[in-house]
Write a structure and sequence with these properties.
alpha/beta, binds nicotinamide-adenine-dinucleotide
Amino acid sequence: MQDEKQKVVLIGTGFVGMSFAYALLNQNVCNELALIDVNKDKARGEAMDLNHGLAFSGANMRIYEADYEACSDADIVVICAGVSQKPGESRPALLQRNTTVFKSIVEPVVASGFSGIFLVATNPVDVMTHVVKTLSGFDSHRVIGTGTTLDTARLRFLLGEYFSIDPKNVHAYVIGEHGESEFVPWSQAMIGTKPVGKIVTDYGDRFKKSDMDAIGIKVKNAAQEIIAAKQSTYYGIGMSLVRITKAIFGNENSILTTSSYLDGDYGQNGVYAGVPCIVGRNGVVGHLSLELTDYEMQQLQSSCGILRQYYKETNL
Ligand code: NAD
């Protein structure tokens, strides 16, 4: 157990929230975990269920169902709460409903005196993270979204499989919106320190550029493919949330494609998007500025334009 108190409050104990909580417990990432949900019975039941695993775990965590006052001394508040799209509901209508849900969450969190870091997973994640920044008035480095961390993990897995290389040695990112306009800046993709473009040129008999394009499309369609098979996705995003939480508690200054506020970076202003960020104890402490090609810059600009439009639809 860590000596220092490391407290996480999780808001939204659905599939995503509880996958995060379960991975948090199994990886012994914090020593206090408070669960909040509009459905208090669900949060209470989930806390009981996790507590019953403590005897078999290496963790020594305090886990309990809580009210918003529990946020007052939390280090990180993770938001996985939200409503899903009703049949026939437009995107602006869904965005406005989720903004109303977020008002009912962010206001009491801030009123509790919370002074830590917000971490958001609710979709559309870049927009909902922007909503949290606006509603909380917090400095943007303390308001982070999961962004394209999961998409990047999917890309690294698929490239690792294709090249028969450990995904940990695959250095490549998905950037932009977590959604339809996301893309892979292939000019920045490396296996070890060798650019993927060079590998494809040098070993053209085995590896093909067209396969890279197919992998990019597979990453973008992964969520839909999983949803078609099992209705929703949650383990991967739960582990992405744990990865970000660890980077914060460990003051790792890890490079992760979280959703962060762009304020001049890549020529973008006033928009949250997934780009390689340096994540440490104070949240997003910097950006790794990639040298994108002109075409990749255009793709990022177009993705940010879409996100700006979505944010307008929240009417904030
Ligand atoms: P879910 O329906 O299982 O859980 C949502 C939870 O939010 C429920 O327990 C519900 O009671 C709670 N909730 C609703 N309104 C609330 C409120 N006002 N206050 C507190 N709690 C409230 O959904 P899920 O499958 O866990 O998905 C949660 C979110 O995560 C969705 O928006 C989903 O799209 C998103 N998601 C994001 C990623 C990503 O990469 N960022 C990946 C997968 C899912």
